[in-house]
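Attaching the record inline, Q. Sequence:
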Amino acid sequence: MLSFHFARRLMVSGLVALLLGALATAACAIEPPLTLEAAVRQGLARAPQLEARTADTAAAREEGARAGRLPDPTLTLGLSNFPVTSPGAFSLRSDGMTMRTVGVMQTIPSRAARDAERGLAAAQIDAAEADYVGAAQTVRERIADAWIEVWATQQKRALLGELRGESALAVQIAQARLRGGDGSATDALAARTDAATLDNRLEAVDADLAAAHTGLQRWLGEDAATVADTPDFQVLPVAPARLEQAIDQQAPMQAWQAREQVAEAALAQARAAKHPDWNVSVDYGRRAPYLSDMVTLQVGVSLPLFTRNRQDRGISAKQAQWDAVQADHEDARRAQRETVARAVVNWQGWGRQVQRYQDTLLPLARDRARTALASYRGGGALQPWLDARRDEIEQRLAYAEALATHARLWAALAYLLPNSETTP
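Structure, as predicted:
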């Protein structure tokens, strides 16, 4: 009797454990759909590229903190007036002029040179920050592209999956007509072939969806079961006119502004080389015990006398480099303006195509296929339905591709202007 109750309790506890495990599994399986905004936010927080650019910015700031400082002083040790021939050779006491010295020498670059060094360091900090902004813009767009690929593939899967029921219905009608003596074996085989072809397409889309999830997981570090709640890809967060006007504020252009600043700071540093540098040294000399010790103070200054073939050449080189950066900057500005204008036009054009698919092409293809299938059910031929079916599948696939292209163009424009979340 005791063993029976024990077995009963054991069985009940096992059932409870299984129930709790099933509930936990179901709770884990039910995940909220991943929105585009959430995907971008999570991806930015985990992007190794941004960690690398943050480290570059930190390094530039550390270099900037020491820019313009005086160099370290130099400790000097010496022995002067040391006899090496007779009489008194190699003796520290035989000659009263022999002296052991210890001293400190400090180099003092010109104020212009130190100011130029600080200016170059500040420009390099700005360049590192601009690289971060550009990297953040690239990462945001690539995360959005990965999310859009998953979303568009899901849309394609849903569009094709809606046709499976009609395929099964066509197979049933063909078999029923064949059994009734009104149909043909050719029609029955054609209907089954169409259904199998659709299954193959769905298998290919499922493989594409798995690959798309892998691409999104590369940025998020984890897999997202579904993506949903898409933004309105027909509306940009920034007006197209604003994008075409704010070329220099866009993330890809900020790197050019920083490069121009670095080139200008390097030119200022080359010009500062024409200013003389100074150095000061103090030596303490100890002589024989019966003679007094001595102190020596020396001041030196560099003499940039032959500037024509030295400093002026360097200034000319830095000036030419600055001119080259400015010319490249203007070319990049024009290219960016063209890129934005093309993207806006293409985005608007694909938006109109998407709307036309939704309003006209897909409904017409759907009505044609339904009408052809109804005609076949009523005793008509199967071929019109097969033709309509093929065209409808192609229309749906083209619609899915149009959705993806339109969304990617939206992402390329939506993330051009940096936001406050992408600050190193």
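The mean pLDDT is 86. DSSP finds ten helices and four strands in the chain.

More tomorrow.
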